Amino acid sequence: MRTSTDENNGFTELSAQLTGFDDASIRATGLVEVYGAVAVEQLGTDLFERLLGERGRPAEELNDDLVDAARAVTFLWYTGSWPGPPPFVVSADSYAQGLAWRAAGLAAPATAPAGYGSWAERPTEPEVR
User: Fold this and answer.
1) Alpha helices (runs of H) in 20-121, residue ranges in sequence order
2) Is the model's pTM score more than 0.85?
3) Number of domains the chain contains
4) Residue 98's closest CA among 68, 113, 76?
5) Percent of the chain with pLDDT over 90
6) Strand 88-89 to strand 81-82: parallel, antiparallel, or no bridges (unpaired)?
7) Which of 17, 82, 101, 118 is most deeply packed, by most CB within 10 A?
8) Neighbour-count burial of 100, counting CB atoms closer than 10 A to its CB (0-12 exposed, 13-18 middle, 19+ buried)
9) Is residue 127, in this structure, part of any structural domain at all?
């Protein structure tokens, strides 16, 4: 299922709010459309649209269905996986682009070989926000 540009923009804004990453970082993953489609498929169109409509509101003001949906979308961005049931990894690229790796200042294991002897180098410092 394809999502509209307006829906992608709304999903990007919602994703930034949920993850703490800015819109540019969310878009840089190249997964906005893919994750939007996964969210629509897994949550259903009605719940997905309700969640988009509530962006900007504090979590305390959301009902249980919307809180669970927001948690699932956040989990998706950080891990590249949908929490289920049943849980599944969206793709190898989604695993590699998981925001958990970016937050830790790392590349996902086995996705970006650093080269011979790289283990001896000091890790780079993560970005401070």
Assistant:
1) 23-28, 32-43, 45-53, 64-79, 92-96, 99-104
2) no
3) 1
4) 76
5) 70
6) antiparallel
7) 82
8) middle
9) no
**Surface-to-core class of residue 48, CB atoms within 10 Å of its CB (0-12 exposed, 13-18 middle, 19+ buried):** buried
Residues 6+ apart with CB under 8 A from 84: none
Please give the backbone phi and psi of residue 87, each rounded to the nearest 5 degrees, phi first: -70, 150
The residue whose two tokens read 């790796």 is: 101
DSSP category for residue 120: G
Single-letter code of the amino acid located at 23: D
Phi, psi angle pair for 24, to nearest 5° = -60, -40
User: Which structure tokens are listed for 6?
Assistant: 């307006």
- Residues 11-60 have pLDDT tens digits of 999 999 999 999 999 999 999 999 999 999 999 999 999 999 999 898 88
| Domain of residue 20, residue span | 5-106
Q: Is residue 117 part of a domain?
A: no
Asked if the structure places residue 13 within a domain, the reply is: yes
> Would you say residue 123 lies in a domain?
no
Q: Which residue has the higher pLDDT, 41 or 3?
A: 41
